[in-house]
Amino acid sequence: MSVVAIIPARGGSKGVPTKNLRRVGGVPLIVRAVSAARTSKLIDRVIVSTDDAAIAAAARSAGATIVHRPPTLSTDLATSESALLHVIEQLDGSQDIVVFLQATSPFINSAELDEAIERVRSGVEDVVFSAVETYAFLWRITDDGAVGVNHDSSVRERRQDREPHYRETGAFYVLRADGFAHAGHRFFGRLGVTIVDERTAIEIDTFDELEMANTLAPLVDPLLEPHSFDVDAVVTDFDGVHTDDRVLIGSDGSEFVTASRSDGLGVRLLRESGLPVLILSIEAHPVVSARAAKLQVEVIQGATDKALALTTWAAERGISLERIAYLGNDVNDLACLALVGWPIAVPDAVPEVIAAARVVLGTPGGYGAVRELAELILTSRTALGHEQLEEPWLYPSAAQR
User: For 162-178, b where at least 16 C-beta lie within 10 A, e where not — what string?
Assistant: First the structure.
């Protein structure tokens, strides 16, 4: 049976502007939804319906097909069903099952998604949606005061004596395509529920929920599989990454730092695999040039606008920012971390950098953090079947700008 995933993602959002491009665990929400669908073993095609060019670009780079969403279906009053039906009209009609995913749910588990698809595919149900089990006592506020909704307020039953209820999470809905086209609504026929992990059942409609999702990401993130660590370039800060962020100052004002030989080997392995490596630093100091020369990588120093420097460097080499791993530790790295597809932090980074990172390494800066990152990337490249380039991409030693 043909299974198509559709992700409606319009550009307008009042509660959280540009919501579908906001990052959780360093990954834009729209990219998370596309990745969850592509990781599924049962979904054949992933389509994003959007009216926004930036969302379309991000979704396309993540592997989705884009269907332009007309203005009449992109207003605050337009329903998700209308966007789904519009996409279905553009297809060849061969799809048997439609999987409706919402990018505002950042932690969609592909195994749970496949369970729901299989239940519809087998004919057990016509619709299966994600939900969490709850024993919460619900109340409704009326003119006469609070009234119990799912319980008798005069009887306080124990949890083990109560019947559970199920709260819809909004993450996914698996629909038999012909039934949905006929009903025009996501709930029709025989309905079923796939119970998902309550920790992942967050839907982002406010900045508070976005903050909570970023707090949860290191604990429940389904996207951080080692094999997915696929990049085309590595960019690092210097102080606090190649060093432990300390400096020794001589009586004459000379400065010295310590670096890890392990990091040096990691950089060499990256270069030999064909991956370009750049050191990008606000500091302009001979020690940075000397270390870059030793590592045989390019360095940009004295970059007052690191994001601009990174964007220019990537554009000149035809490297997509989404395919760059950037390793940082302090607030001056935040703009770069927000640009790249793989924002990485050392474990002793400032809290803002930890929150912005897609991956937090286990090794502190100056003690092998770059080597750890190199091993993660090279292991991923091997798993993904990348071959080493015959001519490694080497840059001029310590080229300064």
Answer: eeeeeeebbbbbbbbbe
